[in-house]
Model the fold of this input.
Amino acid sequence: GEDVEQSLFLSVREGDSSVINCTYTDSSSTYLYWYKQEPGAGLQLLTYIFSNMDMKQDQRLTVLLNKKDKHLSLRIADTQTGDSAIYFCAERGNAGNMLTFGGGTRLMVKP
Amino acid sequence: SAVISQKPSRDICQRGTSLTIQCQVDSQVTMMFWYRQQPGQSLTLIATANQGSEATYESGFVIDKFPISRPNLTFSTLTVSNMSPEDSSIYLCSVTRLAGVNEQFFGPGTRLTVL
Done:
């Protein structure tokens, strides 16, 4: 099956930028997503990008997509303590709406 | 976005029993999915809930263990049958409004612990 990989953990200081990386194997991915999961909560859709785009910006969030290398990143500018959570990337192939998730990156923001 | 509620939010169950989880959406949606998130793990798709017909199960999941109903466009249930401690997970309902639409939203999840 298709794979989506993320690093397990990232620690940053408040006010710094965070960059969370994701790689995937499905060359037919149509959309790629970033979700945020706070402790004890469900998944919150943060943003998504169409596979023919290479960048999308939404306030503090910037998504970069390198389709050739199958690499996706999420940059959070001016990271706040409230950004501490687990961030999941997910990809959707061209056969239906099913999402394949990465293992999640736990972001810890130190004051 | 879609407002999705799940009941129960959490439960502790005995081995061998069954639990039915409900997913209610505030408006009609086309696609409804059930995912499982085992402790410390990522999400795995269990099945796609189809209105008026049998659910479509992913590899490793079967109807006898995870029967699913979807009587209309706003409601679905997932039953976890004959539970064992390995079924302890968060079960999440997910929806998209229209087929092919890009945004997929998740419910708050049901945290199940099986003793």
The interface with chain A takes residues 1, 31, 33, 41-45, 48, 58-59, 92, 94, 96, 99-100, 102-109, 111 of chain B (CB under 8 Å). The longest strand of chain B covers residues 89-96. The radius of gyration of chain B is 13 Å. The mean pLDDT of chain B is 92.
